[in-house]
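Structure first, sequence second, as always.
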């Protein structure tokens, strides 16, 4: 009579604990005459280099044109807007990722210190995330840290993501607002937005 099989080991799947980053570079730059925002420079460093420095040490997914030595994805179809891009980046993350730093490449004054403050606010306050707000109280949705499970719960089906406003995607989330320091909330949408950046760059 064959020996009985031992009972199957219970699954002990570890809880997701990691933090990753999604850097959004895929905008059309329409108000910049089609200029590639990622390639714009400040202080001798491209906007993309500055964004990658801000999230250094994290697993990074870039949404946009291919970047050497960094995993890059695109929303499908391309040109779906930042919410679709964010969700494409989210889909590329591994199952161990519990929170994600989201950063648009057109915010060149965001630094690793900014990201650390956002992560600390999120960890301190709990909820679904923390995002930067400028001096006028405007939410900078593309500079924040978000709970991955909450983002996935809020995400519509893939066929409904193209053109989805970021504000609508994040509306169900309970978010902490972190006041910006100095010029870190400054974003570049038009050529005049570049004026004075050197003076704000610490």
């Amino acid at each position: 009579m064959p020996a009985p099989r031992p009972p199957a080991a219970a699954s002990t799947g570890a809880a997701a604990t990691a933090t990753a980053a999604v850097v959004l570079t895929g905008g059309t730059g329409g108000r910049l005459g089609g200029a590639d925002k990622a390639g714009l420079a400040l202080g001798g460093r491209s906007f993309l280099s500055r964004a990658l420095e801000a999230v250094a040490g994290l697993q990074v997914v870039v949404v946009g044109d291919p970047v050497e030595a960094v995993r890059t994805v695109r929303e499908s179809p391309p040109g779906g807007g930042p919410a679709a891009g964010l969700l494409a980046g989210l889909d590329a993350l591994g199952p161990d990722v519990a929170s994600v730093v989201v950063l648009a490449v057109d915010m060149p004054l965001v630094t690793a210190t900014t990201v650390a403050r956002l992560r600390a606010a999120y960890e301190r306050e709990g909820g679904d995330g923390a995002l930067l707000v400028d001096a006028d109280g405007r939410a900078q949705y593309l500079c924040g840290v978000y709970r991955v499970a909450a983002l996935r719960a809020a995400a519509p089906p893939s066929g409904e993501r193209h053109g989805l406003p970021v504000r609508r995607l994040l509306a169900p989330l309970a978010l902490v607002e972190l006041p910006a320091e100095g010029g870190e909330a400054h974003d570049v949408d038009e050529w005049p937005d570049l004026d004075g950046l050197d003076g704000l760059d610490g």
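Margin note: The two ends are 77 Å apart (CA to CA).
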